Amino acid sequence: MKEFLEFKIDLDGFINELKTRLKNNNKQIEELLKKENKTYKNFVKPMQMMDEYLEHFFTPLSHLNSVNNSDETQKVYAESLPIITEYSTQISQNIEMYKAYKEILDNEKDTLNFEQLRVLELNIQGFELSGAHLDEKAKKRLAEINIKKSELSNNFSQNLLDATNAYEKIITDEADIKGIPQSDLESARFEEDGVTKYKFTLQMPSYIAYMTYGKNREIREELYKAYVTRAPENAKIIDELLVLKNEMANLLGFENYAQYSIATKMAKNEDEVLGFLEKLVTNSKAQAKEELKELQTMSDKKLESFDSTYYSEMLKKEKYDLDEELYRPYFEQKNVVNGMFDFLNKLFAITFKKVDEKLWDKKAFSYDLHVEGRLRARLYLDLEARESKRGGAWMHNFQTHCTKEDGTKQLASAFIVCNFPPSSQNNPSLLRHDDVVTLFHEMGHAIHHMLSTVNENEVSGVNGVEWDAVEFPSQFLENFAYEPSVLKLFASHYKTKEIIPDKMIEKLVKSKNFLSASGMLRQLEFSIFDFKLHSKVYQGDEVQALLDNIREDTALIKTPSYNKFQNGFAHIFAGGYAAGYYSYKWAEVLSADAFFSVVDEGIFNSKTANNYLNVILKSGGSKSMAILFKELMQRDADTNNLLRLNGIK
Ligand SMILES: [Zn+2]
Predict the structure, then answer these.
(1) What is the DSSP letter of 382?
(2) Distance (Å, rounded) from C-alpha 176 to C-alpha 169?
(3) Is 198's pLDDT higher than 80?
(4) In 3-state terms, the chain is what percent helix, strand and coil (to 5)?
(5) According to the model, what pLDDT value does residue 425 have?
(6) Which long-range contacts (CB under 8 A, 24 or more apart) does 537-544 make?
(7) What is the Cα–Cα distance from 299 to 317, expressed in whole angstroms?
(8) Distance CA 428, CA 440 (A)
(9) Dihedral pair phi/psi, residue 200, rounded to 5°
(10) What is the CA(394)–ligand 1 centre distance, in A?
């Protein structure tokens, strides 16, 4: 095999091929289980690699369905989900396999290395969390729940995508687009019957553009209302999901889904999570009230939810004279990408080289990552928004660094997908500074995956990392997108080539914590809602009531009653963040702490940065982050650094 898989997919033959592969896997599993003397080498390793190879086959489909969504990818993806879920549920409940892992751990615990031990421990825990030790009736029910859950999540996500694409607001009155930046208007403008019109949609760059700069308050409310009322049919899915998740947790011996969720996380118990979040609410509230008071001075009318982005931008401009539009010419996409590579080279001595390879879209590119002159990983970047792409930004791993059954090495690869403004022949893709931060964030995930030196793929790179620690490397890296010495590496004007002036950076840094306490409250609102929602069974109106109740404490501007935020909360209903949204804040503590150490040491000659590469990035999930963090800092995480990072006193 070549170092990296080719990105190829046959949609027509996919389901048949999947079924054949799973059949072969099941046959191989049967044979493995028949072995008399099961060892790590002859049993665990082949089991692990079987999963890895299945990922190699399946990832191109899930990836395409996200970045080049079509009726065909949807159909194949939807058809494959129950098949693959049934397969993995069967494995995860196979009592013989569970016994085999326990037996191998017993026999070899003194001779296996810590990576191998961690694989066994996580597998045994995984089996117990998926009910391998339960009776047949309970197992059968769990299997049904898993298939249903996965279908519901996919429907949730698809409903949201359909609703997002179904809406458009056509503006014909030039007065209504006054103040909106040229680059955004460029994307919105079209001609119809000789009339110039502007189309705004619920896709991120377009929606944000109007909410930030759109003068017409009625249009802002119309867009906002369309956005927060998307996919009302998801309310029913939420009810069903909550019941199923609770039933699942009960079957596995937990009181509720929140308890089940934290069994695999750094956090010890429910009280610790809620205590952590509520303390942050308390610490942020006073400053958030001051922030709102100041924001209110910008308008004669009482501020509503659909005003806050607009007036925030206005206040920000007044206070810091910071016009994001003035910054965009300094953040031309290609410059930013190359600059980020340059920064990583200076920080960790790693190098990226562009690869000549045909991918799924002409705007997608791949790069080889070299360390000390040796090829180590491949990175795929697909950064620009298009209609067939799911919203948001994410990193997804493809190959994982490991040693295969025959002792040869497999290298890692990862995708970074974003929704940046599209480039055209006449216009380059000019990023907002937020986009730069997003790119650094996803790159933090990607290098966590790609720089792993772990030999066991189940605990290599981002595999096996606790959920509430998984955002540590991404948030760590995104913090550098505000550092003057880092920005100066790449932020040069795309026309004049002038490096971004010190004064502009100063303003950027100053405005970084603009309205930070309000932003903190909003994230805490999501986190507390998610966590409490999964601590007992909420149904129908109770879901809204819970959210309203939390908002009394966290939402200083009263949210309109038509706002059904929950129906678009894909993180927890279509992603893996259920009872785990708090993880973002949790990991921020780790990242803020490590980040300030590097900064205080002068960034480019920092000993902590070097340790970060060797301890955190290279180790992947081979040890608990609680242990790795202690190895890095020689102490536990200091929560005060989270407030310091956000400028909250
Ligand atoms: Zn992330």
Answers:
(1) E
(2) 12
(3) yes
(4) 60, 10, 30
(5) 87
(6) 537/242, 537/243, 537/246, 538/242, 539/239, 539/242, 539/243, 540/235, 540/239, 543/235, 543/238, 543/239, 543/242
(7) 15
(8) 20
(9) -110, 140
(10) 7
Q: Which has the closest alpha carbon to 360: 386, 336, 335?
A: 386
Q: Measured between alpha carbons, how far is 321 from 328 in angstroms, rounded to an integer?
A: 15
Q: 354 has which bridge partners?
A: 367
Quick check: is 442 catalytic?
yes
Tell me which of 291, 442, 458, 588 is the catalytic residue: 442
Instruction: Give the DSSP H/E element, type plus range, for residue 611.
Output: helix 607-611
Expressed in angstroms and rounded, the spacing between residue 583 Cα and the centre of ligand 1 is 10
Residue 511: its pLDDT value, please?
A: 81
Query: Does the pLDDT value for residue 1 go beyond 80?
Result: no
pLDDT at 268: 82
> Is the distance from CB of 644 to CB of 592 less than 8 angstroms?
yes
Please, is 58 exposed, middle or buried when counting C-beta atoms within 10 Å of its C-beta (0-12, 13-18, 19+)? Answer: middle
User: Per-residue pLDDT tens for 358-371?
Assistant: 999 999 999 999 99
Q: What are phi and psi of 560, to 5 degrees?
A: -60, 145
**How many angstroms is it from 170 CA to the middle of ligand 1?**
34
pLDDT in tens, 16-68: 999 999 999 999 999 999 999 999 999 999 999 999 999 999 999 999 999 99
As given in the structure block, the two tokens for residue 497 are 């080539």
C-alpha to C-alpha distance for 576 and 555, rounded to whole angstroms: 25
How far is it, in rounded angstroms, from Cα 430 to Cα 371? 30
The two tokens of residue 191 are: 């001609």
Cα(627)–Cα(631) distance, integer angstroms: 6
Distance 435 CA to ligand 1 centre (A): 13
- What the block records as the tokens of 167 is 């809406």
Share of the chain above pLDDT 70, in %: 100
**pLDDT (tens digit, 9 = 90+) per residue, 279-330?**
899 999 999 999 999 999 999 999 999 999 999 999 988 888 778 889 999 9
